[in-house]
Amino acid sequence: MAKGMMKMRRRISRAAIALLTATALIATPVGASASEGSEDGPITTQQLWTATTVINKSSTSNSIGTQVLASCTVAVAGATCTITSGKSATRTIGLTFGATRSQVAGSLNISAAATQTISVSCTSPALPKGGSWRAKPKGTKFTYKIRELTYVDAIIVSQRDSATLTAFSPTANAIYCY
Amino acid sequence: MGLSACANAGTEPSAIVGETLAEADGVLPVDAVFIVQDVSPLFNEQPTYDEGQFGSAQWTVVAACANAGTLESSSTIEIAIAPTTVITKEQIGAARGGEFSDAVVCNF
Q1: What is the complex's ipTM, to 2 decimals?
Q2: Is B50 touching A (CB cutoff 8 A)?
Q3: Where are the strands (E) in A18-111, listed by range?
Q4: Chain B neighbors of A73, CB-CB under 8 A
Q5: Min Cα–Cα distance to chain A from B90, Å
């Protein structure tokens, strides 16, 4: 009887893992419960899993990031500012429901690295005294949601979606100056 | 016999004032952001600098600042430059004395 219970538990767990692997989700075991055996039946074990996935993906290329890479203020009337950057711009990725940065990045087909080195310059026109010239990174902006599914064994028992999240992936050699 | 305490101390921004961009290039970190102000109007010239001339001996630094104590450790460096062929020795001396220090704002 003990061997039969072990085989049942392994079959249930393998079925759950196979299903989750096939759907490319990140699954997290939450817990397990066992019911007492009776004269009529064996003891069973249930596995509780949560899994997250990225849905409703869209992207806009040539977007301007919100991060200001550099800012120049002119103190001499008629001077120009040239911003030359070999600097790292930040890659942001919105997360929730325990989804990982690498999971979302992989789903969006972008690097999970926190920064992107960009190397580029831009020169202002002649500016008045007190005039300013700023540089921001250009890149791709993504919007998406994260869906959390809760399974008991291989059966979905609940589903919830996040609010719309955003990610920004800077492009090398691309800045916007204004 | 004494040991020098100056090794590996770094270069203060003021050290490159009066040098050409070519001379200063040796102590400028490769991965910093550079804000270059062409202040040619101070010397009665039109500004003509563009990014292709970074590191050129055609330009002389008249003011400099950075967001850290030394250039080597800075991530943002601001410099004001003027054409080397226009600026005089006296003006270079004045620049080293801080005459043009207001040309850079250093709002880091």
Answers
A1: 0.88
A2: yes
A3: 26-34, 45-64, 70-73, 80-85, 88-90, 92-93
A4: 105, 107
A5: 20
